[in-house]
Amino acid sequence: MSDFPTIVYRSPGPHHGEYGRTYESKGIADADALKAALAAGWHRSVPEACRPSSPPVAPAEVPADDAPPTRAELEAKAAEMGLKFDGRTSDRKLAQAIADALKG
């Protein structure tokens, strides 16, 4: 028994498939045509063709190196250094206390 003719699939297309996606199909007559179709983005089955690809992951937003420290960063550093502060301590005063403690 021969593997040809066979059918390959790709998404999108006019037919409704799995995962809420659509697909199209085409007939393949021989091994060379199958190899070319698979290299061009066609798949051997409807589920393979309709499987959602992973969305690109956006890189986390990193603040610029020259950005001022956030309140959370200031509080973490002050706590790490054993400095006393409370909610009434301004960011500027807290940053100055950290800078003074780092100087010695």
What report would you give on this structure?
With 104 residues, the chain is of the alpha+beta class. The protein folds into two domains: 6-50, no CATH class; 71-103. Helix content is 37%, strand content 17%. The protein is built from four helices and two strands, in the order ββαααα. The chain has helices at residues 31-39, 46-50, 71-81, 91-103, and strands at 6-16, 22-28. A two-stranded antiparallel ribbon has the order 1-2. A hairpin with a 5-residue loop joins β1 and β2. α3 (71-81) runs parallel beside α4. The longest helix is centred in the C-terminal third of the chain and has 13 residues, at 91-103. The termini are far apart. The model has no long low-confidence stretch (mean pLDDT 88).
Physical arrangement of strands within the biggest beta sheet: 1-2
Structural class: alpha+beta
- Kindly, what is the distance between the CA atoms of the first and last residues, rounded to a whole number of angstroms? 85 Å
Count helical runs.
4
Give the low-pLDDT segments.
none
Strand portion? 15-25%
Helix content bin: 25-40%
Rounded average pLDDT:
88
Largest sheet: 2 strands, antiparallel
Order of helices and strands: EEHHHH
Shape: rod-shaped
Number of domains: 2
| Computed CA radius of gyration, to the nearest angstrom | 30 Å
Q: Quick one: how many beta strands?
A: 2
